[in-house]
């Protein structure tokens, strides 16, 4: 996979309370990824960018919420997130990306 695709697959780290709990308990990290990204692409991108060994990747689509405003209903865009489990004893420092 080329360098440009690596940065297209991983959009951003996802910060939430659940992501913090999962990171502490299961050595997992949560990333927002592109909608067309596959598990193998996410695994390759994380291993290349953060220099860690990825054990498993679980992906899911988050349906966009329906919001109401004075003009009617609008839909926020759907997005995809990935739970990445890294090997025991390794961690990802999200502040530094090489």
What this model shows, in words?
By secondary structure, this protein is an alpha+beta fold. The protein has one domain (3-86): RRM (RNA recognition motif) domain (Alpha-Beta Plaits). 30% of the residues lie in helices and 36% in strands. The protein contains three helices and six strands. It has helices at 3-9, 17-26, 39-50; strands spanning 10-13, 28-33, 54-62, 66-69, 72-75, 79-86. Helix 1 (3-9) crosses helix 3 (39-50). 19% of the residues are buried.
Give keywords.
single chain; alpha+beta; four-stranded antiparallel beta sheet; two-stranded antiparallel ribbon
Helix content: 25-40%
Strand content: 35-45%
Q: Residue ranges: pLDDT <50 for 5 or more in a row?
A: none
CATH architecture: 2-Layer Sandwich
How can the largest sheet be summarized? Answer: 4 strands, antiparallel
Backbone CA Rg: 15 Å
Listing every helix as H and every strand as E from the N terminus to the C terminus, the arrangement reads HEHEHEEEE
Arrangement of strands in the largest sheet: 1-2-6-3
Q: Can you tell me the CATH class?
A: Alpha Beta
What is CATH's topology name?
Alpha-Beta Plaits
Overall mean confidence score, pLDDT: 93
Strand runs, count = 6
Termini distance?
A: 16 Å
**Count of DSSP H/I helices:** 3
């Amino acid at each position: 996979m080329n360098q440009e695709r690596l940065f297209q697959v991983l959009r951003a780290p996802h910060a939430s309370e659940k992501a913090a709990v999962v990171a502490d308990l299961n050595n997992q990290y949560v990333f927002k990824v592109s909608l067309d990204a596959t598990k193998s692409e996410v695994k390759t991108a994380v291993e290349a960018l953060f220099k860690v060994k990825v054990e498993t990747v679980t992906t899911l689509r988050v349906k966009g919420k329906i919001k109401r405003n004075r003009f009617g209903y609008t839909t926020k865009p759907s997005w995809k997130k990935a739970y990445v489990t890294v090997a025991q004893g390794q961690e990802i420092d999200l502040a530094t990306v090489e």
